[in-house]
Design goal:
By secondary structure, the chain is an alpha+beta fold. The chain folds into 5 domains: about 100 residues, Sulfite Reductase Hemoprotein, domain 2; about 180 residues, Sulfite Reductase Hemoprotein, domain 1; about 80 residues, Alpha-Beta Complex (Sulfite Reductase Hemoprotein, domain 2), CATH 3.90.480.10; about 140 residues, Sulfite Reductase Hemoprotein, domain 1 (2-Layer Sandwich); about 35 residues. About 30% of the residues lie in helices and about 15% in strands. α10 crosses α11.
Length: about 700
């Protein structure tokens, strides 16, 4: 069902005052550069405003948007909506604020710079005058990073940042600590080296995820190509990013013709005609929007946490035929506000492969037209879906898509795939996946990675689990690269604690303004304590659970999909969420609130002990907690009196005499470990080295 259009464009002419937009108090959308009150027209909030470049005096053309669908509702708008509307497409007042000598920017500019891929931050642990800096986030569809861009980001971290790079849960870099005076230099360097931060933050489509593994398989290649095309389709078109950072010069590769065609298509009333932002208009989206593309079985992308999940469906010969679509995932919530919640994406339908861009666009437009703009707590698409239900949502999307969705195709079970270690790409080359604790690349590790990537001219990929993959490695290079990685502290996965391999944390303190408590800085100690508790109750070293920690309820490290999610809930206290599964297909639920950091063992010890004793064959911890239910689990915690002594007797067999034990204990204290932990590590490493020697 195609939507009809409203009145023809209205043209408003006004005078410029040194090129600066002038605004009166808000009475609906006004011309972004009109200064004369006699020329100020009261316009609908749905009109798009932009300066024409064809005349010496500024011409503001306000173009009618598509007529609202019958489902659209009007609400009072939030302050951010007004800022966006008055910004001349995300330019003003950021352009002026960047020219001042102040180390920070004002509130409106702080909102706008997010669309450019940056957040203003300050060190919350400093007292007195605030030390402002900016975090930059890149946009890397599929996590792809060229050799050239990696080396540039590595340089920028040292020259203008805090000396570290951070790999994010959406396959991008974060560069912390950039000063305002250096922003343009850093941004322009990234752009000139074929990188981008455009849309990495803000109310628009964020980085599009896809499996990072560089397999030369039709389905993987098609998933990655689709992710890149979706990212291009939903990239802002009005040029504000290039105007701000490279003086209007557009440094970008040519778009595939199918992307241009889908963006320009308006046969079903999706576009703002004659607007510089045909999909976004002046208001962009109500909130951030997240998309992931993958292939059957591969849930490395946490598919169901995204606003749109896209799954390649192939025929028996491995040829991609179309896509299953899932909608409405999202993690953010607010503590003790039950009307906010994490949500798993639901099946929407199947589309043939040639229709994917049109279907994605229809979903985005449905959210653009109907998502709430009055209260940002409820602006994600999951709340629209929850309010409407999937049937009504599907009907509205179909009106913008122009046809009915087919039923989703049946798929095999999902698995979490980390792609750590060495693998064949399928084209004669190898790739190597490397674990990076909390995604923080620093120190010796950072220097080692740079040396290897530079020496062998390697491209890299960032994974949704904050790890990094070195791509296109010749077989002759495997041995020297393995040696160099080990010397730099980048261990093969068999030498990394299994708990660490699946753990994630958000940055939290000291820079995140939303953090309530620690996450990235606290997770190493938490994982050590969990490992010690495992040993205490008799769980083996190769046992693991998925643990994720965030400093606030916004859920940046996706804790609500973890088997154990720790969510900051006060000074040194956390909510404990249980019930996620290792393949990230089940939503966790809050088990306990305001558990103090030092009391974690009081909760985890009885749960782990009973998991070991009462689980079914190969039952995961998340599966165990779901099967037993929270009532029984809480009873276990309440009645817990400690691990029976017989469970830990085997620990004594490691040491033949007191002198050996005391020597190991002294070394262990230096490494913040128990004597038993250190002894087990020494034995495992020795056995592994012996096995490696035989195999080679």
């Amino acid at each position: 069902m195609a939507a009809s259009y409203g009145a023809a464009a209205a043209v408003v002419r006004g005078n410029c005052h040194e090129g600066k937009p002038q605004f009166q108090s808000f009475n609906g959308l006004r011309s972004a550069v009109v200064t004369s009150s006699s020329n100020s027209f009261l316009l609908s909030k749905r009109l798009s405003v932009f300066p024409s470049i064809s005349a010496p005096s500024s011409i503001i053309r306000a173009v009618s948007a598509p007529v609202k669908h019958e489902t659209a509702t009007e609400h009072k708008r939030s302050k951010v909506e007004i800022i966006k509307e008055h910004s001349n497409f995300i330019r003003y007042p950021l352009n002026e604020e960047l020219e001042t000598d102040a180390p920070n920017i004002n509130e409106s500019a702080t909102q706008l710079i997010k669309f450019h891929g940056s957040y203003q931050q300050y060190n919350r642990e400093e007292r007195g005058t605030r030390s402002y800096s900016f975090m930059l986030r890149t946009k890397n569809p599929c996590g792809k990073v060229s050799n050239r861009l990696y080396l540039v980001m590595d340089d920028l971290a040292d020259q203008f940042g805090i000396g570290t790079l951070r790999l994010t849960t959406r396959q991008t870099f974060q560069l912390h600590g950039v000063l305002k005076k250096d922003l343009k230099t850093v941004m322009s360097r990234i752009i000139q080296n074929m990188g981008s931060t455009l849309g990495a933050c803000g109310d628009l489509n964020r980085n599009v995820l896809a499996p990072a593994a560089p397999f030369a398989r039709k389905d993987y290649l098609f998933a990655q190509e689709t992710a890149e095309n979706i990212a291009a389709l939903l990239t802002p078109q009005s040029g504000f990013y290039y105007d701000m950072w490279v003086d209007g010069e557009r440094i970008m590769s040519a778009e595939p013709p199918e992307v241009v065609k889908a963006r320009n298509d308006n046969s079903h009333g999706t576009n703002f005609p004659d607007s510089p932002e045909p999909i976004y208009g002046t208001q962009f989206l109500p909130r951030k929007f997240k998309i992931a593309v993958t292939v059957p079985t591969d849930n490395s992308v946490d598919l169901f946490t995204n606003d749109i999940g896209v799954v390649v469906v192939s025929n028996d010969d491995g040829e991609p035929q179309g896509f299953n679509l899932y909608v409405g995932g999202g993690m953010g919530r607010t503590h003790r506000v039950d009307s906010t919640f994490p949500h798993l994406a639901e099946p929407l339908g199947y589309v043939p492969k040639e229709d994917i861009l049109y279907a994605v666009k229809a979903i985005v437009v449905t959210q653009r037209e109907n998502g709430r703009r009055d209260d940002r707590k409820y602006s994600r698409m999951k709340y629209l879906l929850s309010s409407w239900g999937i049937e009504k949502f599907r009907n509205v999307v179909e009106s913008y898509y122009g046809r009915k969705f087919e039923p989703c195709r049946e798929l095999p079970e999902w698995e979490f795939k980390s792609y750590l270690g060495w693998h064949d790409q399928g084209d004669g080359a190898l790739f190597c996946g490397l674990h990076v604790d909390s995604g923080r690349v620093k120190g010796t590790m950072k220097r080692t990675l740079r040396d290897i990537i530079e020496k062998y001219n390697l491209n890299v990929r960032i994974t949704p689990n904050q790890n990094i993959i070195l791509c296109g490695i010749r077989r002759a290079w495997k041995r020297p690269i393995t040696t160099a990685l080990a010397q730099g502290g980048l261990l093969q996965p068999r030498f990394v604690d299994p708990l660490n391999l699946t753990a994630m944390a958000c940055p939290a303190f000291p820079l995140c303004p939303l953090a309530i408590t620690e996450a990235e800085r606290g997770i190493p100690d938490v994982l050590k304590r969990v490992r010690a508790t495992f040993e205490k109750v008799g769980l083996k070293y190769n046992e693991s659970v998925v643990i994720r920690i965030t400093g606030c309820p916004n859920g940046c490290a996706r804790p609500y999909m973890a088997e154990i999610g720790f969510v900051g809930d006060g000074a040194n206290s956390y909510q404990i969420w249980l019930g996620g599964t290792p393949n990230q297909t089940s939503l966790a639920r809050v088990f306990m609130e305001k558990v103090k950091l030092h009391d974690f063992e009081k909760v985890l010890e009885p749960l782990f002990y009973n998991w070991k004793r009462k689980r079914q064959s190969k039952e995961s911890f998340g599966g165990f907690t779901n099967r037993l239910g929270f009532e029984k689990l809480k009873e276990m915690v309440d009645k817990w009196e400690g691990v029976p002594e017989t469970t830990t007797r085997y620990n004594l067999k490691l040491f033949s005499d007191k002198e050996t034990y005391e020597a190991i204990e002294g070394l262990a204290r230096v490494q913040d470990k128990t004597a038993h932990q250190l002894a087990i590590e020494v034995i495992r490493n020795f056995v592994s080295s012996q096995q490696n020697g035989k195999s080679e």
